[in-house]
Amino acid sequence: MCDLRLNAPLSQAIHAGDSFSAVTHMTDILIRTIGSTGRITLTRPDALNALTYQMCLDIEAALERWRADDKVAQVVLDADGERAFCAGGDIADMYQTGRAGDFDYGRRFWADEYRLNAKIFNYPKPIVSFLQGFTMGGGVGIGCHGSHRIVGQSSQIAMPECGIGLIPDVGGSLMLALAPGRVGEYLGITAARMSAADAIYAGFADHYIDESDWPALIAELESGASVECVTAAATPPGDGHLEGLQHDIDRHFGGESLSDILNSLQHDTDDFAQATLTQMDRNSPLSMACTLEIVHRLRGPSLTIAKALDLEYRFTYRSMELGDFLEGIRAAIIDKDRTPAWQYADQSVPAASVSKMLMPLGKHRLQLEEDNMAQLKIGFIGLGNMGAPMAANLAKAGCHVTGFDTVVSQVDQLTMARSAAAAADGADIVVTMLPNGGILRRVADEVLPKMRPGALLLDCSTVDVDSARAVADQAAGHEVMAVDAPVSGGIGGAAAGTLTFMAGGSEEAFAKVQPLFEIMGQKAVHCGGPGAGQAAKICNNMILGATMIATCEAFALADKLGLDRQKMFDVVSTSSGYSWSMNAYCPAPGVGPQSPADNGYKPGFAAELMLKDLGLSQQAAEAVGADTPMGARALELYRKFVEEEGGMGQDFSAMLPRFEAKTRD
Ligand code: NAD
Questions:
Q1: What is the pLDDT of residue 24?
Q2: What are phi and psi of 216, to 5 degrees?
Q3: From ligand 1's centre to the CA of 384, what distance in Å?
Q4: pLDDT value at position 596?
Q5: Residue 499 beta carbon below 6 angstroms from any ligand 1 atom
Q6: Atom number in ligand 1 closest to CA 386
Q7: Ligand 1 contact, 614 CB (< 6 A)
Q8: Which residue(s) pair with 33 in the sheet?
Q9: In the prediction, which pLDDT does 374 show?
Q10: How many C-beta neighbours within 10 Å does residue 141 have?
Q11: By three-state DSSP, how is residue 253 classified?
C-alpha cells in the first residue's frame, strides 16, 4: 500500500494474429483483448497490486473502448501473484500531497476512481473478476461491482478504511447497506475480514471456485465461452463465520449512533462483544460514526450506486482537511507506530461533526456523468427558515434558482423575482415551502397558469392532505405534474442537505424530482399517489409528538423517584423504551447526543410547529373516522403548552421542564 513508485506507463500495441490483439502493457497493468474477451490483469504483485491513479485511468479507458466494441462480449479482470487481487488504493501520493497542504490531488484521484467504480457497476457487458488473497478498499471498488465476482480458498475481502481515518468508499457503502440485517454496519465499523463464504453471504462476491480451476476457466472464457461457464463451475463455499454471528451482530449494531452500539457492546461480557470492541478500538471514531450514518442514509428503496458514491465523496473530499485521514496514514504506514491520535479519542463523536463531514459539496460534488443540473431552471417560493437554505443548496449544486417570498428579499446565490408568478415563469420545477395549506392553494392559483406543460410543482411544506390533493388536481388541469413532499430534519437538516422527504405523486413525477431530493436531502421515500407524502408526514409527527411527551414525562417521573438521568438514558436507549425522541433528540440537557435541550431549548423544531402538525393529524383522523386517542391527547397537551404555559418559541422537547415543574393534579 505504501509503494512510493510513480507509474511510467509504457504503451505498445501488438497485433498477433486473430485471437490476440491490441495489447497495452504498462508496468502495473496488462490490458488486451483475447478473442471476444477484454482482459485486464493487475501486475504489481510486489505491492499487493495496490491501485494507482494511473491504473484507474487505464482501466476506465479500456472499459470505454470495449463498451462500444461489438467484438468484445465480456471482460475478465484478474491479478498476478497469490497474495492479493488488490489490497487497496495506492495512498502514498495522497498522503504526501495532503501533508504539503495540497488536497486537490487526493480529491481528483477519488473522484476519478469513483467514476470508474460506477462504470464497472453499470457496465452493459459481463465483467468477471477473480479475487484471490486480499481484496480490500480500492480492490473492492474494481473487483466487487462486476456481474460475476469469483472467490476462492485464499480470498479475504474487507473494507478496512476506518482504520486509516477514511470510510468504506469506492461504492463499498452500497454493499454494506444491502448486506443482511446489520452485517453492513458491523463490517464497515470493525473492518472485519470476510472469507470467501462470508463475502458471498454479505453480497461482496457471487461464486466460489477452487483457485486451481481458475486458469482453465479464464482460458475457456478467452476462447469464446459465454459467462454461463462461470456459474456452472461454482461449488459451495464451505462454512463462513458471518452467518453464525448474525444474531449477535443484529443485537448490538441496530442502534442509531456509534454510542448506541458501544453502549450495547459494553454492557455485554461475551466473547463476541469483547472481540468486537477490541477491533473498534483501533479505528477512527469519526470515521466509524460517519460510516454508520452513511449506511443508515443509504438503506432503503432509493439506494443507488450514484448516491452511495456521492455520500462517500462528501467524506473523502473533507477527510484530509477535517477528518483523521492524514493521521491514520501516518500511524499505520509512515511512522508505523500504530498509535493514531484520533480527534475523538473517547469515541463520543458529536452529531454535528458527523453532519459536517457529510454536508453536500455544492459545486464540488461528485459528478459521475455530464452535469445537467446547470440546465435546470427552478422557481422557489417561500424562503423562510427552511426554504432559504434548501434553495441555497440547489443553487450551490449548479441549478439556476429564481426565488420569491413576501417578506424575505434576498438569499445568497438566488436571483430574486417580484412575484410568485414571475419566479415560476419558464421554470422546469417550482418548489414551494410555505406555512400552510391555505397559502399553498393561493400560490398554486397564481403560479400554475404560468407553468409550461410537462413542468412540475414540488410542494415541500407541511399542509393538510386535502390541500395537497386539491393542488395536484389543479396542476393536472394545467398538464403540470405535482409532488407533495413534506420533510423531516428541521432547519439543521435543511442547511446540511440531510432532509428526509416523504413524497406523494406519480412514479414519473417522483423520478423527475429525485435529483433535487438528492441535493437537498439524504433520503426520499415514494409513499404513493397525491397526498400520500402529507399523510406519511402527519402520521410520523403524531408518533413523534406522543413519544416526546412520553419520554419527557418518564424523565420527570424518574427525577422524582431519585433515578439519575444518565442511568435512565443508558437503560432506556438500549431497551424497549428506545425511540428517536430518547436516543437522537434526548430532552434532558447534558444527556445523550447534542440536542436543543443543551441549548436552552432554543428550536430545533418549535412547539407551535408540533402543535400545527398534531392539528393536521387530528383533522385528517376526523375526516376519515380514525380513532387516535394518543394523538388527540398530545394535541391537547401541546395546545396548552403553547397557548397557556409559555411554550411558544421553545423547542418541542421543552415539555421536560414543563413536566418537571408540575405535580400530579
Ligand atoms: P417560515 O415561516 O420560516 O417560512 C415560510 C415563508 O413563507 C416565510 O418566509 C413567509 O414570508 C413565506 N410566505 C408566506 N406566504 C407567502 C406567499 N404567499 N408567497 C411567498 N412567500 C410566502 O416557516 P419554515 O420553518 O420555513 O417552514 C416552512 C414549512 O416547512 C412549514 O409548512 C413547516 O410546517 C414545514 N416544516 C418546518 C420545519 C422546521 O423545523 N422549521 C420542519 C419540517 C417542516
A1: 55
A2: -65, -40
A3: 5
A4: 92
A5: no
A6: 26
A7: no
A8: 21, 38
A9: 67
A10: 29
A11: coil
Are 457 and 447 within 8 A, CB to CB?
Answer: yes
- Looking at the CA of residue 436, tell me the nearest atom of ligand 1: 32
Ligand 1 within 6 A of CB of 387: yes
* Region of 17 on the Ramachandran plot (φ > 0 left; ψ -120 to 50 alpha; else beta): left
Q: What is the mean pLDDT of residues 523-551?
A: 96
Average pLDDT over residues 401-424: 96
Q: Which helix (H) or strand (E) holds 131?
A: strand 127-131
Please state the atom number of ligand 1 nearest to the C-alpha of residue 604.
40
C-alpha cell at 255: 442502534
The tens digit of pLDDT for each residue in 328-358 reads 999 998 899 999 999 998 777 888 899 899 9
> What's the rounded Cα separation, in Å, for the pair 22 and 632?
74
Q: Do 72 and 125 form a contact (C-beta atoms < 8 A)?
A: yes
Which CA distances in Å does 130 have to 76, 152, 290, 635, 662?
A: 8, 8, 31, 60, 68
Looking at the annotation, which residues are catalytic?
Answer: 537
Compute the distance from residue 619 Cα to the ligand 1 centre, in Å: 20
pLDDT beyond 60 at 23:
no
Q: Give me the domains of the chain, ranges plus CATH numbers.
A: 20-358 (3.90.226.10), 370-529 (3.40.50.720), 537-661 (1.10.1040.10)
pLDDT at 398: 84
Nearest to 435 by CA among 475, 385, 378: 385
Q: In this structure, are strands 487-488 and 156-158 parallel, antiparallel, or unpaired? A: unpaired
pLDDT confidence bin for 110, thresholds 50/70/90: very high
607 lines ligand 1 (CB under 6 A): no
Backbone angles phi, psi at 404, to 5 degrees: -150, 140
Return the exposure string of 75-85: e unless at least 16 CB atoms fall within 10 Å of the residue's CB, then b: bbbbbebeebb
% the chain with pLDDT above 70 = 95
How far does residue 388's CA lie from ligand 1's centre (Å)?
9
16 pLDDT above the threshold of 50 = no
Q: Under a CB-based contact definition with an 8 Å cutoff, are residues 255 and 264 in contact?
A: yes
Cβ of 384 below 6 Å from ligand 1: yes
The alpha carbon of 436 and the centre of ligand 1 are apart by a number of angstroms equal to 8
- Predicted confidence band of residue 211 (pLDDT cuts 50, 70, 90): very high
453 CB-near residues (< 8 Å, 6+ apart):
478, 479, 480
> For position 3, what pLDDT does the model report?
30
User: Starting at the edge strand that comes first in sequence, how are the strands of the sheet with 156-158 ordered?
Assistant: 84-86, 134-136, 156-158
Alpha carbons 410 and 414: distance in angstroms, whole number = 8
Please provide the size of the chain in residues. 665
